[in-house]
Description:
By secondary structure, the chain is mainly α. The protein is built from eight helices and no strands. Helix 2 crosses helix 4 (85-102), helix 3 packs antiparallel against helix 4 (85-102) and helix 4 (85-102) runs parallel beside helix 6 (127-143). The two termini are 26 Å apart. The relative contact order is 0.09.
Amino acid sequence: PICFPVTIPMSFVVGLSIRRDLALSFIRWFILILSLSSLYQFYLMPDMLRGGVYWPFIDNNSLACVLGVGFLLWLGKSISEGPYVRYYLIGTLVIIAGVMTTGGLAVFIILFVIGAVTLYILRPVSLRKCLVLIGGILFLMTAMVQSEISFHHFLQQAPIVSENILQKGLAEDNYLAGSRALLWKSAYQIFL
Length: 192
């Protein structure tokens, strides 16, 4: 629902295009440029951040969803064969870094699931490409310490979150689940 205003026009561009490969290539490169601009904002304009990079959208989750679409487009090209596969892998990692700048943890986790399913469906995929991609993601999670989706941040917040959950449980607002548990509980009560 967050990405609806952006993904629907993109799908019309692809659906109405005579040369779908050219339209997909345009969207792929547009999202890569969007990811590069989010990295630029994250590192060079940190005073603009409100919990993560969000420009040109209203919130960071919208940007993360659009970058997630780009992740699938770049992942599909990076597991193909050809002379530019190395550059497609780099593009895929740039998209992942862009998602990390948004702080959208749910989108980041879903990208792992969707990426694994995609790699499974499109098998046989080179083990070397998979290892390069996973190693690149682990490197980004280690090197981008300012991101809320980094090992540094997780290790720093883990004791606080676990103590909060042990004291209050998931029924209270906390950093890990936010108020999601409360939302699900109230939605369950509505239907009873």
